[in-house]
Design goal:
Length: 258
Amino acid sequence: MPSEVVGVHSIRSNFSPMFIKPLLQEKGVLHFTLIDPDKQSPQKAAEVAARAEACGSDGIMIGGSTAGYDDTNRTTEAIKENCKLPTILFPSNTEGISEKADYIFWMMLMNSLNRRFLVEEQMKAAPIVKKLGIKTVPMGYIVVSTSERQTTVERVGNVDRIMTEDIDKLIAYALTAQYYGMECIYLEAGSGADFPIPPKMVNVAKNNLDIPVIVGGGIRDPVTARNAVSAGADVVVTGTISEKNLGMFEKIVLAIKD
Ligand code: 1GP
């Protein structure tokens, strides 16, 4: 984190009007590109962000489970120089906070069994975010176990597992997030998951909630992305595919925007 951050006296206001809903009203279904600062150089990240903007993606999420402050900050700066899309931090701890970003997903890992991901990391981050004036986007983050192989976020997040048949459990967590006043929920299968969130889960979540539903994890082709949208996803997130196959990434964005 930036070393000069002490106390909670704000240098700029970070009062946050709604972010997701107005963007949805303006542009329809959204696509966000997730960039992990630990997976490529800042220059390469900036190139991906520029491609994302050119093909119609709507925002750049920046974060990863191992990214440190310096990489996050340099990557965010390079992205801002190359691309006009809003940047939204998606941090796993305070190391993932950069003063260069426009927004931060203010996340609670709803189904974590570890107090650390429910409130402790947030308590460490709150004075920093206040000081830096980054706008917060409150989000209920729900990890679903879609695959036999545990994903990193499942393991590190120490989750109360939600299997794909646990629809009532998913909805109970999602409604809890909504009643806490979260601006959106994120149904997460985990980066690189073998299978994405099943469309049925997306559909039931959408039908039971009044807040936007973000869906991500394991989306690697246009058909899977389109299925999420047909099921009711308001925002689709892809990460790994833009590191591996930019042509496929562009097809996914076009399919979402179709
Ligand atoms: C991870 O949902 C995102 O938080 C993106 O997942 O890397 O599998 O696209 P992928």
